[in-house]
Amino acid sequence: MDDDPSVTADEIGDYARRARLDPDRFDPAEQAAAMAAQDDLIAELDDLEAPTAPDREHWEPEEGDDPNAAFLARCDLQRTDDGPLAGLTVAVKDNIAVAGLPMTCGSPLFEAHVPAEDATVVDRILDAGGRIVGKANMDEFALGGDAATMRFRLARNPHDADHQPGGSSAGSGVAVADGLADVALGSDTGGSVRFPASFCGVVGLKPSRGLVPLTGFVQFSKLNDEIGVLAGTVGEAARTLEAIAGPDPRDAATAGASPERYTDAVAGVDADAAETLTVGVAEELFGGDTAVDETVRAAVDDLAAAGATVRELSIPNFEYAIPAWWAIAMTEVAAYVERNGTNFWQRSVTDPAFAAAVDEALAERSDELGDYPADAFLYGQHLLAGDGPEYYARAQRARELVTAGVAEALDGVDVLAGPTTPMVAPTWEGESYLEDSTLDEAVRTTGPFNLTGNPAVSVPCGTNDGLPVGLQFVAPRGADATALRAAAIWEAVDR
Fold first, then answer.
1. Is the pTM of this model over 0.85?
2. Is 366 one of the annotated active-site residues of the chain?
3. β-strand partners of 91
4. Structural domains in the chain, sorted by start
5. Is the confidence at residue 317, as pLDDT, over 80?
6. Environment class of 40 (CB within 10 Å of its CB; exposed 0-12, middle 13-18, buried 19+)
């Protein structure tokens, strides 16, 4: 037996206590020898050849060309000029890997991290002829709503620079609104695609759960996260979704995904198509800013005047949506960070280099982490250490109730309609929806549909004091084409 075992008796005792076992049941010498043999076995994985990052040119954005801080890095990447996305420029949120370019996740902790492989969605964009023009600015770790969470550049609303562009895919919304990219990829955990779409006056799509692969994406909450699309028009959003959707052998969560012909669903749609649309107006989605409610109801009235059937309805058990969303999101992000960015329950290929980067960053430079992510990680640990697992299980049961309630509300209508966000873009100074008293109110119209997995599309439907107002359409899970078609009909009515 090795006289200098790799595992000490004290460590074995610690492992036993962490497993809630009696340390006295284990013989330290026997366990040390067994663990050494098993370590030798898994060490054979060290022979796997790690991928090498390609040499791709990138540069810092010029303030004069990007005054509202859409980008953290600029590039010009194109694999082919032929394909369904040919002619479209694309911005990619900086928590989605573009090989050879830094992927900061909006945090100084990862300023030097460069992934070696493209995310699946990036690979598909390039295969489809899209031209990637930069990594889009974002709030640190995709937690947005306050100037302090924008660690590198403060993104500003193109309609009024004193106002927020919407987080956390802030740069993605700004890039499209400012015409610096035709479309942009963002991520949406509780509204992070739809907030910038609503605030910046562009189209924003959160797809159905499991439709778009997350391989190469740095998650926040494995249940709630989706990669979505921001675009200038519904047609461009449909083209992009069609290019990136579908099963990915590296992401088992997409197994069985059945992409539709999204471009066909919106092609040729005109105002007369409103006669084929049945819209459910859910009372639970209203009750925020009065002017926003009035603008959205006026848009629904315009749809009705064009021939759409409109029904007032209610969503059963909707009151459980935000408590369940928050319990699941906070518990999952805490477990994800605790395990260095590796999710043991998500059946997709992960990046060992990123896990090592998280370990190094939090072990050596955690003081560089911003206050709001630090607060979120701390609360997540509170959940993990206490009653969180029990409440996580309760939240999953509540998710079932809310999902069934949304399905019941959708029975007999094509889509649900309501405000995307319950407010217009707040100012950067003096307003924040990260406060405990306002966060649940801010995301109550968006977060529930991450919880349920339904597709949701935000389209601009007017303004309030010069700031855009978003109209959201929600369709049954898997019916992304239906949500896009409803958005295209509104777009035609609103011309």
1. yes
2. no
3. 134, 184
4. 9-47 (no CATH), 58-493 (3.90.1300.10)
5. yes
6. exposed
